[in-house]
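Reviewer 2 asked us to include a model.

Predict the structure of this chain.
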Amino acid sequence: MNKNILMFIYALICIFCSCTKAPTKKHTFLLFNLYNNTDSIVNKKVFELTRFPLNKIDSIVIYNKKSYICNYKEKVVREKGIYRSCGKNLILTHSFSDTSNSSKFCLMEEPFINESVLLIDSKKYKIKGVEYKLYYYAENNGSHSGYSSYYLEDVGFICYYNFSRDDYILCDSTNIKTLNIKGITNQLIRDTAFFARFIGKKLIPNYYRSKTQYNKN
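Predicted model (C-alpha cells):
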C-alpha cells in the first residue's frame, strides 16, 4: 500500500481516538478583590484560587498576584461537609450541619486555611429563578483576628471577612460561565442578618480599629 495512504489512515485513527476519549473535568478558578470598610476595591485580583479535579479529591492552588501562596487537597461530601488532607488523613474541617463543635486542621495560611472552624449558619438566595446555598463559618488561627468565611455550595469559598480590620476579599469573577457570581455576592454583602460585618457591629458597636493603609494596584 502506498506510504502516503498509510500515513493518512493513521492520522484519521488518531483523530478518531482523540475525539472519542472520555471527557475530563476542567479546572475552575475564582478571582478575589480586596475591599475596605466602604465597600471600595483597594486591591484588584489580589488572590486567584484554582481547583483541579483529581481522582476522588481536588487539588487547590492559591496565588497572590503571580506569587505562589499554598496548595492543599480537598474533598466535598454533600450533606456532610468539606474534608481536607492533613498528612495521610482526611479531616472534616467545615461541617454542613454541626454548629456545636469546631474542627482543627494541621495547616495554616490566612485567610484560606485556619486552625479552627465553626459553622455559624446557612442561607439560600434565589436569583433569577436559581437557588444558591451559602454556609457561614467563623475561622480562627489562635489570634484575636479571625475570619468569617462564606462557602457557596458546589463552587467553593467566595468571601472572607476580617472584623478586626473591617475588610474582606470577595470573588468577583470566575470561569464558571453559568454562575451569577455578582448577583450572589451583591446580595451577600448587603444582607444585614447574614453578613458578618453587620452582625459584628450589632454585638460590638464600639469596637476600635486602627486605620489600615492600602495600596491600590
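The chain has one domain: 24-203. Residues 24-203 form one domain. We have added this to the supplementary material.
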